[in-house]
Design brief:
The chain is mainly alpha-helical. The protein has 5 helices and 3 strands; from the N terminus they run αβαααββα. The chain has a 3-stranded parallel beta sheet with strand order 2-1-3, covered by helices on one side. The mean pLDDT is 86.
Length: 161
């Protein structure tokens, strides 16, 4: 019995050394994928469209404000109040549109990137299983990585092709 316990104690450190660790740079992987470039292109086009819409709204507000500044001295109090309210409403609408556009861009980004992230995650898991890795860490996240940690970024990229 003592020999069995002694043998287990001697083999326990060997089991620790049998663990295999890897690291991966998902940023490099994501930048190399054509799907990411396509998604970024779609997002940039949508953002440009939103910017153009906002610019048109801002130009309209500026035009009406300039017109108001020129004619306010000849307006009666009621017309002045109506115009100021209209300008304030336009300004609030621009702010609301900006916020809505930001939310829409974030939603679209999540919608476009989610399948890509899932694809990369699945490739990392496949490399981990195929290489019998105990852990695969994101590069830069570990405080220390010894010489025995293998960079599996290229293997994951190969899995995605």
């Amino acid at each position: 019995m003592k020999k069995l316990i002694l043998m287990l104690m001697l083999l326990a450190p060997m089991a620790m050394f049998a663990q295999k660790f890897g690291r991966v740079n998902t940023q490099t992987i994501m930048q190399s994928l054509p799907d990411v470039s396509k998604a970024n292109g779609e997002l940039q086009a949508l953002q440009k469209q939103y910017e153009n819409d906002l610019k048109a709204m801002q130009d309209e507000l500026q035009r009406k404000n300039d017109e108001y500044q020129k004619t306010q001295s000849t307006m009666n109090a009621t017309k002045k109040q109506e115009t100021e309210t209209e300008l304030q409403n336009m300004y609030q609408k621009i702010q609301q549109t900006y916020q809505d556009n930001q939310q829409a861009l974030q939603k679209k980004s999540n919608e476009l990137m989610e399948p890509i992230v899932t694809k990369v995650r699945n490739a990392i898991q496949a490399v981990g299983k195929a290489g019998a890795y105990t852990y695969i860490f994101e590069e830069g996240a570990a405080v220390y990585a010894g010489d025995s940690v293998k960079d599996v970024t290229a293997e994951v990229q190969a899995k995605l092709k």
